[in-house]
Design a protein that fits this description.
The protein has about 550 residues and is of the alpha/beta class. Helix content is about 35%, strand content about 20%. It catalyses: (6S)-5,6,7,8-tetrahydrofolate + formate + ATP = (6R)-10-formyltetrahydrofolate + ADP + phosphate.
Length: about 550
């Protein structure tokens, strides 16, 4: 069986100018990065008056058995084009950390991929490096300000801006910095997060242009004074230089699927520790150039979809016409209590037990007023009886489940899904609404997500967390939505609790203000904002072959 990278290399790609022409993007707006990828200068793209229909692809809770959300997104976009609909794909950029760790890339798989796969999964157009540099410039300017007299009276015990790196490195989670004497600054404790958890990443993905980008950067709260007043990036005069570093990164990236259909791959916040959606700019551009736009939100619908609705849609005014929930027989069997090593034999009873996970995700997405189709991403060995159980569960919750074989067959394997989604978009009646009102107190917003989406008894937190949230409310940040950071593997904060757990609590360990991005992060349970590498990282199998080609990258 061919690997993803072998399939990608065997494809005949079209020059990126031809892909842009399919969307009527003028030549002068295309800034090529090689032959098959480009930045798009939106200032040179004329207004079209189009308002495409937005389709969200989400999933059940992920398991090591895999669900294939990005692959399904690519297959659906290809299939919509096959049935005569002008569809554009919008995905996030992959992080280097998971590429060399466990999760792998995010360019799809099999015959449903975006290309050039190697470029997208590695350095691509340099967006993540620009975000890392802008973030760390701000960190350097904080310490420099303190070193040269601290005119803003920053309390070094209350500097909240950590540094970032686009790599999984547990050794950097908590550090002691500025050791070695006065010439190196004031010693203090700090740490690193992964770049995809950076507020700068979230800002790039939520900004609607350069002016808004710089304004948001200026609002970043980096520290507090001794009398607890917030200190911002604008106070440090860092926002202008940060915007300069991001001026190219904010332009959306255009690539293609293996079937030659246009795809914007831009921005990449994690969904378990950030808001998990591609950029607003790329999504709006696609909606103005196509009639249907397929986008995804990271991990399961309890994380990615909730944040897509409550953060991205709330801030941008986007309204999805339909949602696709990706499910697999293998993952539902794991949710039904079957070990990964025992997934081979057919077990419809286990699918039914694990189907409570799918059922809850359907209920949750419909709770936002968005109609749902379930995509059964078929694997070899899935039995007809097992897939019939998934169809039955979906039907019992008011949705249709459609069998998909896009991994093996490309767009042709997702035509039935495309027809079902187009039917929903063209004839459905979405009544989209966010989960909570802006005016609700911050902890009540956290509790609303915990009880209504996770089905917890309640969210709990130490008095210090409640006090911090009250101070932010008093400072004028109470209207912001919340961004829940928790494990992606369960509705609870315990990754071992599969299925659809109830009667659990959601412990909020820490809260962080992302004033520039426009949300408050609630860090729940043991989730880490700087992941670590596994016992056997994928990096061990990645190398250059004799001909200089990359080997081991999936």
């Amino acid at each position: 069986m061919l690997t993803d990278i072998a399939i990608s290399r065997a494809a005949t790609l079209q020059p990126i100018g031809e892909i842009a022409a399919k969307l009527n993007i003028p030549t002068e707006a295309v800034e090529p990065y090689g032959h098959f990828k480009a930045k798009i200068d939106l200032a040179r793209v004329p207004a079209t008056g189009r308002h495409g229909k937005l389709i969200l692809v989400t999933a059940i809770n992920p398991t090591p058995a895999g669900e294939g959300k990005s692959t399904t997104s690519v297959g659906l976009a290809d299939a919509l084009n096959l049935i005569g609909r002008k569809a554009v794909l919008c995905l996030r950029e992959p992080s280097l950390g998971p590429c060399f760790g466990t999760k792998g890339g995010a360019a799809g798989g099999g015959y449903a991929q975006v290309a050039p796969m190697e470029d997208i999964n590695l350095h691509f157009t340099g967006d993540f490096h620009a975000i890392t540099s802008a973030h760390n410039l701000l960190a350097a300017m904080i310490d420099n300000h303190v070193h040269w007299g601290n005119a803003l009276d920053i309390d070094v015990r209350r500097i909240v801006w950590r540094r970032v790196l686009d790599m999984n490195d547990r050794a950097l989670r908590d550090i002691a910095q500025s050791l070695g004497g006065p010439a190196n600054g004031f010693p203090r404790e700090s740490g690193f997060d992964i770049t995809v958890a950076s507020e700068v990443m979230a800002i790039l993905c939520l900004a609607d242009g350069l002016e808004d980008l710089e304004a948001r950067l200026g609002r970043i709260v980096v520290a507090y004074t001794r009398d607890r007043r917030p200190v911002t990036a604008r106070d440090l005069k860092a926002d202008g230089a940060m915007a300069v570093l991001l001026a190219q990164a904010i332009k959306p990236n255009l690539v293609q699927t293996l079937e030659g259909n246009p795809a914007f791959v831009h921005g990449g916040p994690f969904a378990n520790i950030a808001h998990g959606c591609n950029s607003v700019i790329a999504t709006r551009t696609a909606l103005a150039l196509g009639d249907y736009v397929v986008t995804e939100a990271g991990f399961g619908a309890d994380l990615g979809a909730e944040k897509f609705f409550d953060i991205k849609c709330r801030q941008s005014g986007l309204k999805p016409a339909a949602a696709v929930i990706v499910a697999t027989v293998r993952a539902l069997k794991m949710n039904g209590g079957v070990a990964k090593s025992d997934l081979g034999p057919a077990d419809a009873a286990a699918v039914r037990r694990g189907g409570v996970n799918l059922a809850r995700h359907i209920e949750n997405v419909r709770m936002f007023g968005v109609p749902v189709v379930v995509a059964i991403n078929r694997f070899d060995g899935d039995s007809a009886e097992e897939m019939a159980v998934i169809r039955e569960i979906a039907a019992a919750h008011g949705s249709q489940a459609v069998l998909c074989t896009h991994w093996a067959d490309g767009g042709a394997g997702a035509v039935a899904l495309a027809e079902a989604v187009a039917q929903l978009c063209d004839h459905g009646s979405p009544q989209f609404a966010t989960l909570y009102d802006d005016g609700l107190p911050l902890f009540e917003k956290i509790n609303t997500v915990a009880t209504r989406v996770y089905r917890a008894e309640e969210a709990i937190a130490d008095p210090s967390v409640h006090a911090q949230l009250r101070r932010w409310e008093e400072a004028g940040f109470g209207h912001l939505p919340v961004c829940m950071a928790k494990t992606q593997y369960s509705f609870s904060t315990d990754p071992a609790k599969l299925g659809a757990p109830t009667h659990h609590v959601v412990p909020v360990r820490e809260v962080r203000l992302s004033a520039g991005a426009g949300f408050v992060v609630a860090i729940c349970g043991e989730v880490m904002t700087m992941p670590g590498l596994p016992r056997v990282p994928a990096a061990e199998g990645i190398r250059l072959g004799a001909g200089g080609e990359i080997e081991g990258l999936f």
